[in-house]
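Handout, tutorial session.
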Amino acid sequence: MNPQLAGLDDLEGTYVFDLHTSNRAMKLNRFLWKMIGTEARAHFSKDPEQAMTEAGLSDTEKDLVRRQDWIGLIRAGASFFVLEKFARVAQRTNLEVYAMMRGETFDEFMATRRVPECR
């Protein structure tokens, strides 16, 4: 184990993204990353099941994508940087994704910000 990661498992809400996680979730992350491309977005929009199957996603990963389970995707090894690509396809802003990750409505989340009126 990387000594720099020692103790991180004890921090609630911390999900390590390291080489092991990257390798384990490579198909998921490649699928999400490809959402930057017009063709991949169109294919997913037209037939999400086929797009996910062609990407080699597991049944668990497919379910997380279908439900737009943002924190579940992070726990499954998705990099937040590629998760943002999928959020655009799902027509979600980063702030909306953060709220959902916390199990809050958008308004509940915004009330916790220093400038809650800023949208």
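The second record follows below. Compare its token runs with those of the first.
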Amino acid sequence: MNGLFGSTVLEVAIGMAMLYLLLAIFCTAANEWIARMMNARAATLENALRELLDGQQSLAAGGAKLVDEFYGHPLIGGLMKGGKHPSYLAARNFAGILMDLVTPEHPGTITFDQLEEGIQKLPQGNVRRTLLALIQGVGRDLNAAQKAIEGWFNDSMERVSARYKRRTQMWTLIVAILITIATNADTIHFAQRLWLEPALRSMVAAAAQHATMTASDAGVAQLGQMIGWRTQQDWGLLGWLERVLGWLLTVGAVSLGAPFWFDTLNRFVNIRAEGRSPAEAAAR
């Protein structure tokens, strides 16, 4: 084995990182497709808004709910194309709608006093209490009051984003498992082949180098030789245990995501470029 830089160890690491990057890209694409099919982002936002405003009656006669008034407002109605809930709502729009709903008698420009009066007229509820608490420390400044309402919305969305991220991580794990088994992506087998086959190892490393850390056609072709269920083998119990361990290692690596492996591949390729032997440097 050569020294670390430009060595077998580094070329194997480059090959593994390139393989994980390719699989992670497939995983990300599948996740995006699932999110679109399930309309996950829009559904998450809708649930968050209803949690935020539910249980509070509006100023409208007949005991209408504030959340229904919110969705009936033109500002959010314009975002619902084809009746579909938007997947994103700006904090300023949320604050603007809410301030407009509590001051129905004052269309257009309002003052802080009118905003406070409108909030106090709301029936008892969590939103009323929250809004009154938010405007207490703003020095009777309308702009500061709006910023406080926007901050309330943003804080709530951060918690929602954390929940959505955890749900996405769960889907990422499931998709990674399916892709790993479908492609027979065994980390142990990959590492052994790269270690024992200098020609394959060099071609994969060169593909990563020349493609400036992207999966070139040559790189994908070489990696394609290492995955799939082309041969049927009787692995036996120990063979299956090794294969399952290899799959688990692949799933864990792919779950780290494409950005992680893109950055890692960048670093490995840069290290190899800086540590190229004099003979390799002269050949370039």
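Points raised in discussion: The two ends are 22 Å apart (CA to CA).
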